[in-house]
Every structure is written in C-alpha cells, then in structure tokens.
Amino acid sequence: MSAPFTIAIDGPAAAGKGTISKAVAAHFGFAHLDTGLLYRAVGAKVLLGVDPARAARELTADDLAGEELRSPEVAQAASKVAVIPEVRAALRDFQRSFAQRAGGAVLDGRDIGTVICPEAEAKLFITASPEVRADRRFAELSASGAATSRAQVLADVKERDARDRNRAEAPLLPARDAVEIDTSDMSIEAAIAAAIAIIEARLP
Ligand code: CDP
Ligand code: CDP
C-alpha cells in the first residue's frame, strides 16, 4: 500500500495495545510506533534531573532503547511528564510524521485516535479490568526478576489510569469512532484476530 493508512490503537496500561499493535503491523506489513516509549524516555531523563520540556524537545532515537524504560518507576514518571502540555507538543510532530509514512503505520498510546491522528483510517480502543491488567503486568515484571508485589502493581496501574484519564490535555478516552475490544476474558491470540478483522474491513 503506498498511500498513508493509519491504525490508531489506544487504551490503558497493560491492556494489550503493544502486543496487538506489533502483531497487526507484522500482519499488514506496516511500521509500528510505541508512543508510550517516547513518554517513558522523557520520564527517565526527568528522573536524572533534566527539565521535562527540554528532555522532550531534545529526544533522539538513542533515548528509546534500554531495559530501564520498562520499569514501574519510569512508567510513573512517564505519566507525570505526560500531563505537561509542552512535553506533549514537543512529541506531536514526530508522531504525526510517523503516521504519514508511505506503506501504512500503526501507532499505540493514549491519544492517537483523539489528538495525534484524528483522521486515522482504523481506530481501536483496547481495555481490560484493572485487576486483569495488573496480573499481566505483574507476570511480566516477575519474569524479568523485578522485586514487586501484585498489590503494588495494581496500585500503580490504578494511579496511572487516574492520572491519564483526568488530565486536561489529551486525556485517555476512546475516540467517538473507535471500536472497543475488552480483552479481560480473551486470549492474546483472540484479541489479535479480532483487531485484524476490524482493520481488514476498513482497508481500501
Ligand atoms: O501495551 P500494553 O501496555 O497495553 O500491553 P502489552 O504490553 O501488550 O501487554 C501486557 C501483557 O499482557 C503482555 O505480556 C501480553 O502478552 C499480555 N496479554 C495477555 O496475556 N492477554 C491479552 N489479551 C492481552 C495481553
Ligand atoms: O505500557 P503501558 O501501557 O503501561 O504504558 P505506556 O504505553 O508505555 O505509557 C506510559 C505513560 O505514557 C502512560 O501512562 C501515559 O501517561 C503516557 N502516554 C501518553 O500520555 N500518551 C501516549 N500516546 C502514550 C503514553
């Protein structure tokens, strides 16, 4: 496909956005951008003492790699810098140009369907209960050897959900034309199949 075709995949933490986005991008041969990684990279810089707006303006591709970006501390820092309008503005153009690339693009985050790509050809809003999402994130963190508890992960998920939903700029909410997939009782394979079917129906 040569004309831009943008797929927006939004939803709360650990709903399955990233896994679904990667599978969808591989299925259609599209490029994928995990926009949470941009906010995580800014959050990580702020934990080192850099000014948030400056960290966002000066972000480079090199800042987007590293296991430390997956940590719960960086996730919290990301959601704190994500309320700052200057940070969101500094990251906007990069996300929009990524979406416009020839060959199709999948972007996952919180505000892709509402703010970054309101004209996206396909929009999905992936959800699951906070308890299910905390279980999934806890399993991932335990497997990577992180010392944490399920209760702590659930508290973190709920705190981040509240901050993401209640912020003034670009809050987490489904776009009016997004199709919602509740993955609470779905296997990841079933969720991927549902996403692909919805997108296929929107292809030219
Ligand atoms: O990107 P996001 O934070 O929304 O979630 P993810 O990183 O894609 O998924 C978090 C974890 O939940 C991963 O280990 C997924 O494999 C798992 N998952 C699952 O077990 N069942 C689903 N229906 C969706 C995700
Ligand atoms: O992987 P997980 O879903 O836990 O989080 P993430 O997608 O890596 O996003 C980390 C944080 O960045 C979120 O809690 C949001 O506060 C922020 N974020 C955002 O505000 N807008 C986006 N498009 C993506 C992430």
Automatic annotation (TrEMBL):
It comes from Roseobacter sinensis. It comes from the Bacteria. Coiled coil: none annotated. Its EC number is 2.7.4.25. This is Cytidylate kinase. Residues 7-47, 62-199 form the Cytidylate kinase domain. Signal peptide: none annotated. It is an enzyme of class 2 (transferase). Belongs to the cytidylate kinase family. Type 1 subfamily. GO terms for molecular function: kinase activity. Pfam families: Cytidylate_kin (PF02224). ATP binds at G11, P12, A13, A14, A15, G16, K17, G18, T19. It catalyses: dCMP + ATP = dCDP + ADP; CMP + ATP = CDP + ADP. The keyword Transport does not apply. It is found in: Cytoplasm. Its main location: cytoplasm. Keywords: ATP-binding, Cytoplasm, Kinase, Nucleotide-binding, Transferase.
